[in-house]
Amino acid sequence: MTCTALGTTIQERLSMSKLSHSDVAPTSVSGSLQDAMLSSMPALRAFAISLCGNVDRADDLVQETLVRAIANIESFEPGTNLRGWLSAILRNHYFSECRKHRNESEDVDGRSVATLKTMPDQDSQIELDEFRAALATLPNSQQEALVLVGALGFCHEEAAAICGTGAATIRSRIHRARVRLTALLDLGSAHEFGPDNRTRAV
Q1: Does residue 158 form part of some domain?
Q2: In tens digits, what is the pLDDT along the chain, a chain of 202 residues?
Q3: Nearest 5°: phi and psi at 27?
Q4: Would you say residue 184 lies in a domain?
Q5: Residue-range definition of the domain harbouring residue 150
Q6: How many domains in the chain?
Q7: Nearest CA among 34, 48, 131 for reference residue 76
Q8: Which of these, 27, 83, 115, 144, is most buried using a 10 Å CB contact count?
Q9: Which residues contact 116 (CB under 8 A, 6 or more apart)?
Q10: Is residue 111 part of a domain?
Q11: CA of 192: how far to CAs of 101, 127, 152, 183, 189, in Å?
């Protein structure tokens, strides 16, 4: 599903939610705030894919995240990081679902960041495929830290808030992940990860 189609589906569900839940008042969320939530969808979707490795499930996660955000909008403090707040809701919901379904596999096929970035030329695509394969071997906590900071652009403090840990822990996870990736990809340093700036950031 494209982001445009997903956005339409979410808008329809938000409208239904307001009509079907007495605790969600139609005027509780301003149009501008709803627009800001919907504009966060690409980043939320990328984060969801990095967590579950499945596009369809990621779309469901994003949809449920925004519906939950609308239902609990009173807990959002205006002027704070909306994207970080939404990402924390998504992450908490994902791991809550994982606890309910412990027998389900989580990212066993290494597709965790398969659609986060597509490079145009063949040489770069080969490098990216190698990078994805190496990234998939890292512990989930390290993958998550790299995706939040490197791919989605959160600062260490924001990523720490989303993951419910300290900024020092996030820095440590990223450092260990970069060292491991450098070894796996047989690079002289992390600066040799490839021509793409976002991959280099990771």
Answers
A1: yes
A2: 555 555 555 555 555 444 333 344 444 677 788 888 888 999 999 888 888 878 888 999 999 998 899 888 888 888 889 999 999 999 999 888 888 766 555 454 555 555 455 445 555 667 777 877 888 888 889 988 988 998 888 999 999 999 999 999 999 999 999 888 888 887 655 554 444 444 444 4
A3: -100, 10
A4: yes
A5: 122-201
A6: 2
A7: 34
A8: 144
A9: 46, 49, 50, 147, 151
A10: no
A11: 39, 11, 20, 12, 6
Amino acid making up residue 2: T
Angle between helices 82-100 and 156-163 (to 10 degrees): 30
Q: Which amino acid is at 184?
A: L
The Cα 178–Cα 176 span in angstroms is: 6
- Interhelix angle for 41-52 vs 82-100, to 10°? 30
* Same-domain pairing of 16 and 84: yes
Residues 84, 132: Cα–Cα separation, whole Å:
24
